[in-house]
Amino acid sequence: MTSEIDQVIAEAKAKEAVWKKEIEEMRKKSFSTICVHGAYTQEESIRNNNSAVIEPVFSSSAQSLKNSYWLEAAMSYKIPAWGYSRIANPTIAYLELVLSMLESYKQPFSASACCTSSGMAAIKAATEPFLVNLKNKDNQKMNFVSMAQVYGGTFQLFNERYAKERGIEVRWIKDPTNFEEWRSNIDENTRFVYGEMPSNPGLQIFDIKKVAELSHNFEIPLIVDSTIATPVLLRPLEHGADIVIHSLTKSITSSGRVIGGAIISKENIKCKFLTVEQKKDFAGWIKLWPARDSGACLSSEAAAHVIDEIKTLRMRMNQLSKAALEIAAFLEKHEKVEKVNYLGLESNSLHSLAKQYMYLVDSNKNRYGHLLSFTVKGGLEETRKVFDKLKIIFKATDLGRIKSIATIPSISTHQQQGEDARKLASIPDNLIRLCVGAENPQDLINDLDNALKN
Ligand SMILES: *Cc1c(COP(=O)(O)O)cnc(C)c1O
Description:
Blueprint: H1 4-27, H2 31-37, H3 42-48, H4 68-75, H5 90-103, E1 111-116, H6 119-127, E2 143-147, H7 152-165, E3 169-173, H8 179-185, E4 190-196, H9 208-217, E5 222-225, H10 230-233, E6 243-247, H11 248-252, E7 261-266, H12 276-280, H13 282-288, H14 290-294, H15 300-310, H16 313-333, E8 337-341, H17 351-357, E9 371-376, H18 379-388, E10 394-395, E11 405-407, H19 418-424, E12 431-435, H20 441-452
Parallel strand pairs: 2-3, 2-4, 4-5, 5-6, 10-11
Antiparallel strand pairs: 1-7, 6-7, 8-9, 9-12, 11-12
Helix pairs in contact: 1-4, 5-15, 16-20
Bound molecules: pyridoxal-5'-phosphate.
């Protein structure tokens, strides 16, 4: 005779199997359709949500359960449930599922996701499990390899928290397009390899396929932060990466109403430093164990904002990329501009590599995203003058917004790193980072033209 708890498990699993089948059907649809529907099928709407057309915000700290057996099964993770919202919540689950569907779009493998309170929380949660003290107590030799041109917060986490506070060796790759540099820095004590594509603000890229293969030769994972590209323009898992990071704060949620992050992992990631259970569903494991313990969860309200924006992500990234190219072409011709850094410009030394990786999903059109940067002739003082004259373009340390935003990284986002680290990350003093929004591009060009006048 089956016990009461076995019956509960059987009932819950049968219900889950029905939903999983619907999700598998949805996974076969086109990218735009998945953006709009995700795992929130009509059946799911009727079954669990009073037929609400749009994903409801489950603004509740916890879920009540039928009886002690359901309570026990839920809290011991024997059944899918949302007992407590730090660990699981339906609105957040809808977001995690659509993100994992988009990052594994048209691939034979599946992916899973764990949302976090911020992009930095995602980066910390995704990297920390590789840096634990293993039984062999060999952590003195432990190292990890990362390209140097990462987001300022990531640089600080790796350099200050991991390297200086914990004594873990971080090996910076200065030229990520130089494959030899990756090869000579990775060894048997390397725990993971980390890249950003494209990087913020330097717009550095690297050959994901080659670096993934190299990492896998050492049985370690490649982690890629593709916040700036979004799954519309780049899906690193399909090129061999094991784990993808998003700051949901940025390009995915253009309204700017949310701070959030996500870790998306491929099933069965490569890693000799993890257990079979950890490798099988890395993001799911993070969600149930370390993220539960550190507590940096997303709120259901924030998750709903992100879900709303994912529905229009493809058309937005397409339009913003076209506008950015137009603006980059204008800046390139301007006499006050020293150099424009935009992956879509043919003059860019990384253009041909970018062309291989960055294109509008479900089309053969190359698109290079909304982020560009340029240096102003005359150093920091002249750069400040140009920046201060911007009227339409907001002056802030933000990006990915539906409105255009500019910043001077050397005195803002990358100020704390100091001059040497800025040099390492190739951030000159006179660099303006511009993230193009959905205003009419001509109004933005006029704003820039006016600011660049003496
Ligand atoms: C902003 C940013 C992060 C950090 O995200 P938060 O949500 O601000 O914590 C990580 N990576 C990249 C590329 C970013 O631009």
